[in-house]
Amino acid sequence: MTTITKDTATAATVLDASGVTMRFGGLTAVRDVNLTVREGEIVGLIGPNGAGKTTFFNCLTGLYVPTEGQVSYKGTVLPPKPHLVTQAGIARTFQNIRLFSNMTVLENVLVGRHTRTKEGLWSALLRGPGFKKAEAASRERAMELLEFVGLAPKAEHLARNLPYGEQRKLEIARALASDPGLLLLDEPTAGMNQSETRTTEELVFAIRDLGIAVLVIEHDMKFIFKLCDRVAVLVQGEKLVEGTSEVVQNDERVVAAYLGTPYEGAPGAEEAAEVEVAEAHAHGTAAPAPTAVPAQAPAPETDADDAATDDADPADDAGTPAEAGSGDANSTTEGDSK
Ligand SMILES: Nc1ncnc2c1ncn2[C@@H]1O[C@H](COP(=O)(O)OP(=O)(O)OP(=O)(O)O)[C@@H](O)[C@H]1O
């Protein structure tokens, strides 16, 4: 798979989020955030736990109605309804995997396809020639996507029997089934081992090479800095810095607010570790181990109980199953908006 970085500076804007603010009662989870994603770009969104990254994603995909600001896709303001956002061309995956666990791998992808099929209820019930043709085309496309993510041999397996890393791939295949122009990935490598993370990296580059722009939230800095053309940093709901991987990882404010110690393999990380060890020896103390885990942001001191979650029913999100906890025995996942 290719890993070329294209010149995207002059490419057309796919996503334009402007002045997005999201308040939950007294808590401002996202404050006046502007972000664009251009054609052919992979953009990263990073920040400490609770910085507002997922809330921002939820505003982009219509799961939340932003308190202020607006989101446009290819020049058109998006209605704050998940299924309309999917129809417009934005697909997403969730931090907590959401699959229909008792359906097959293929069926899960077919579910993601429904926004692109025109056949209605009567057609489905009567199973006429139009329906059969559309069904065959959908299956063909779903198999292509399974081939693309490497899951074709497991098309008839139940989703719940897939190993964790493959469930994440299946989520991506299902998102791609809606033929998006922009894919939002919320922590795609969470819980993955190194080899699964590398495979996901390759997959994201391949998705970009198909002409699909990608916006990705991730805590794995090595993954983000290798993958992204541009990275935006959220801290306590506000965008602190935005720039290339190099600019962001060298920005003092980002290092102070988020990165803490350099991540493993970062430029200068080895030298920094040596300095730390030397200093520790000089002071007669043991050096703390460098960490790839970002520092925790201080929790905002506000009451989120009366959160404004109008229109925030995740089950309303097109192509995503109802959630565990709401009585759906089919779902593998937890019941939140992550
Ligand atoms: N539905 C909600 N109601 C009330 N508060 C919420 C809601 N969703 C998120 N929050 C709060 O908004 C803030 C931002 O949370 P969010 O989940 O967006 O952060 P995050 O950057 O995605 O964190 P993480 O990296 O841990 O996933 C947190 O303080 C969180 O508790």
Automatic annotation (TrEMBL):
Region (Disordered): which ranges?
Answer: 279-338
Give me the stretches of Low complexity compositional bias.
283-301
Question: Is Protein biosynthesis one of the keywords?
Answer: no
One GO cellular component this record assigns the protein to is: plasma membrane
Sequence ranges of Acidic residues compositional bias: 302-316
Please name the GO terms that the record assigns under molecular function: ATP binding; ATP hydrolysis activity; L-isoleucine transmembrane transporter activity; L-phenylalanine transmembrane transporter activity; L-valine transmembrane transporter activity
Q: Which domain of life is it from?
A: Bacteria
Tell me which Gene Ontology terms the entry assigns under biological process. D-alanine transmembrane transport; L-alanine transport; L-isoleucine import across plasma membrane; L-valine import across plasma membrane
Checking SUPFAM superfamilies in the record gives: P-loop containing nucleoside triphosphate hydrolases
Protein name, as recorded: ABC transporter ATP-binding protein
